[in-house]
Amino acid sequence: MTMKQANKSYIIGISGPSGSGKSTLAAYLAEHLPGAVTVCSDHFFKKELPKIVSPLDGAEYPDWNHPTSVDFTAMAEKLDALSSDPDIRYIIAEGAYIYCIPEIRERCDYKLYVTATIEMRLYRRICRNIVKMGQTAEFIGGYYLACARYREAEYSVPSARYADLIIDNEHDFTPAKEEILGKLQIN
After folding, report:
1. Within 13 Å of residue 28, how many CA atoms lie on the same side as its CB?
2. What is the pLDDT of residues 144-186, one digit of tens each?
3. Do the Cβ atoms of 99 and 113 come closer than 8 Å?
4. Distance between CA atoms of residues 183 and 72, nearest Å
5. What is the pTM for the complete model shown?
6. Strand, helix or coil at 53?
7. For residues 36, 41, 42 and 43, what is the CA-based torsion angle, rounded to 10 degrees?
8. Per-residue burial over 13-27, b = 16 or more CB atoms within 10 Å of its CB, e = otherwise
9. Which domains does the chain have, with CATH numbers?
10. Mean pLDDT rounded to a whole number for the chain
């Protein structure tokens, strides 16, 4: 692999559905790649979210799982600003819907997609959201079943076709992490 331009950072995209291990992989790469920073699409949620009418129960919910829930213009501007910083060699762009947006997808020099079974992902989502957000298992599972799973199937899962490498993270992706680091050791 070679960088597109010598004076630009190398952008690594990491996408996949909720609970697949995107953030875990991003943190691992940021720790092991010199001069790496992470830009997570979750930090660019719009204040006014789109709504979803759930196919499960017909109720309307705020939709954190639609590509339009993220201000991708602001995210692209952040990637561009970081890319020009000579101290930053790698930028890790992470988010479930980043490959759905051409302006983000086309900025990525190398695209990874992380996946696992729906059961494993839901388990991880419940564990994470209880600890990080103080949500109940009932709320997390209910929202996932009513909304998130439909948007993942509609947007995130099909965007795997843009990936250079799809990583199965059902149990452990240590071998994949080592393979990725080997490919990303860019001089």
Report:
1. 17
2. 999 999 999 999 999 999 999 999 999 888 888 888 888 886 5
3. yes
4. 27
5. 0.92
6. strand
7. 70
8. bbbbbbbbbbbebbe
9. 10-184 (3.40.50.300)
10. 93
